[in-house]
Amino acid sequence: MCNSIDEDSNIAKEEISAAKNENLKYKYFVANMLFAFEQIFLVIGNEPDWQAVMRDHLLRHKSYLSNSKSIQNGHWNVNFRDFIKSTIQE
């Protein structure tokens, strides 16, 4: 019985570790997406087709972005940050 508990504990630790790793990958993906979008926004921010593409992708990550400290703390260009905020409030 003790072996079963130890095995279950190890499996749980592996699952937690895997979940943390996936969460880290997701955060990294979103950060890279935001960086790329910010660069596009700064160059051709008023282009409606690009704005539509960026809005579509931002809305896919709305739940994460709504709680993002990088957006709340102003780590992005002010106009781009306003674009993100207005998009995720839709």
Count up the domains: 1
As residue ranges, the low-confidence spans are 1-5
- The portion of residues assigned to helices is over 70%
Rg from Cα: 19 Å
User: What fraction of residues sit in β-strands?
Assistant: under 5%
Distance between the termini: 53 Å
Strand/helix succession: HHHHH
Count of separate DSSP helical elements:
5
Give the mean pLDDT. Answer: 82
Q: Which structural class do you get from the secondary structure elements?
A: mainly alpha
How would you classify the quaternary structure?
A: single chain
Major sheet attributes: none
Backbone shape: globular
The strand count comes to 0
Question: How would you describe this structure to a colleague?
Answer:
The protein is an all-alpha fold and 90 residues long. It has one domain (2-88). It is built from 5 helices and no strands. The chain has helices spanning 2-44, 48-60, 62-65, 69-72, 78-88. The chain starts with a helix and ends with a helix.
